[in-house]
Design brief:
- Strands 4, 5, 8, 9 and 10 form a 5-stranded mixed beta sheet that branches. Strands 1-3-2 form a 3-stranded mixed beta sheet. The protein has a two-stranded parallel sheet with strand order 6-7.
- The protein is globular and about 60 Å long.
- The chain contains 15 helices and 10 strands.
- Helix 9 links the parallel strand 6 and strand 7.
- The protein is an alpha/beta fold.
- It is 47% helix and 19% strand.
Length: 350
């Protein structure tokens, strides 16, 4: 089964497509009736920007990237030509993160936890090591203020990418081939996790059997029994059709995963100041809307999944899950003063 078969648009959301947006798009969208030739508009594009990410087609994140591409093209008067490749068309998640650092692509999305090796305090801001964020308002207090700006600065210094905005996929939950309503039932579950130590530590502590696996391999791994389950947001479960291979969903709220909108800093710095401002300001606009859309559509998406046969379960011992996970908080705080400081500041904003 090809990747094309594994992704589907989410009901009620506009289907994005690969876009080439520059002078041509600005004229075609806003001034085609003026009769200006497309070749004249194309000549205006002095800079190119490739946006590539692994988010599902039809998801709020992918829609936000589509909107961002349009806003950049329009507000730059076609000086920046933008191409948008969703759903891993240019590589898997890990590859795209590295490509954004190198400048092979100019923008992508990824959780701050991805920077665990080079900036572990950013991994904490990405929700590690579980149950850090109390609710959505807590996330906003952390990321939409001074602390979010500081996290972006750290990322820029350590990785060569700037976090120009923060989208989100929301709280992550458990999807499995058998019901899980307690820690006892979680025991031994072969659970797909990213290839990051913090995720492995978290699920090992809770009693699962974490299995590091590339993001794009989850559907086939479920279908062949390589894994018994995964953890994800509802939009990805629907968009990548993982529910076809695992029909049991458990509300766990274990991880709220922000998605940093990552722009290669060297490319951004090479732009004239007015175009740099456009890239940053349009990102803030597009992903503020994304956060609203994401939160407004979560329950409707879950209901759609139930209509497709997915069963929804609730935990009978949530307090035990949180208590187990909190054992990691101290362990991670002990890693460095910077991690301890970041955790303290995040928890203080609860």
């Amino acid at each position: 089964m090809t990747r094309k078969n594994l992704i589907t648009p989410i009901a009620g959301l506009t289907l994005p497509r690969r876009r080439v947006l520059g002078g041509a798009a600005a004229i075609a969208a806003a001034g085609a009736t003026a009769g200006l030739p497309l070749r004249r508009a194309s000549a205006q594009a002095e800079h190119t920007m490739t946006i590539a990410h692994a988010e599902a087609i039809g998801s709020p994140m992918t829609q936000a990237f589509d909107l961002w591409a349009e806003l950049i093209a329009e507000q730059s008067d076609g000086q920046i030509a933008v191409e948008h490749f969703p759903a891993g068309q240019m590589g898997n998640y890990t590859q795209l993160i590295e490509m954004s650092r190198l400048g092979t692509v100019q923008a992508t999305a990824g959780g701050p936890d991805t920077e665990e090796a080079v900036a572990p305090e950013i991994a904490i801001a990405g929700g590690a090591p579980g149950f850090i964020y109390a609710d959505q308002d807590h996330v906003d207090r952390v990321l939409q203020g001074e602390l979010g700006d500081e996290i972006s600065r750290i990322a820029r210094e350590r990785t060569g990418v700037e976090f120009v905005a923060y989208g989100e996929v929301g709280f992550r939950h458990l999807l499995s081939s058998r019901p899980v309503t307690s820690l006892a039932e979680l025991g031994g579950l072969k659970l797909r996790v990213p290839e990051l130590e913090v995720w492995i530590d978290f699920w090992s502590l809770l009693g699962a059997n974490p299995t590091p696996l590339a993001y794009a391999e989850q559907y086939s791994a479920l279908s062949t029994g390589v894994i018994d389950g995964l953890e994800a947001d509802v939009f990805s479960i629907l968009g990548f059709r993982w529910f076809e291979q695992a029909q049991h969903f458990t509300h766990t709220y274990h991880w709220f995963l922000p998605k940093a909108v990552r722009v290669n800093a060297a490319w951004l710095d090479a732009l004239p100041g007015d175009l740099q401002a456009i890239v940053r300001e349009t990102a803030a606009t597009a992903f503020a809307e994304q956060r609203e859309t994401n939160r407004a559509n979560t329950q409707a998406t879950l209901a759609e999944l139930q209509g497709l046969g997915m069963e929804v379960h609730e935990l009978t011992d949530m307090a035990d899950w949180v208590s187990q996970a909190e054992q990691l908080w101290g362990q991670y705080a002990d890693r460095s003063p910077a991690v301890a400081d970041m955790m303290e500041r995040i928890l203080a904003l609860r």
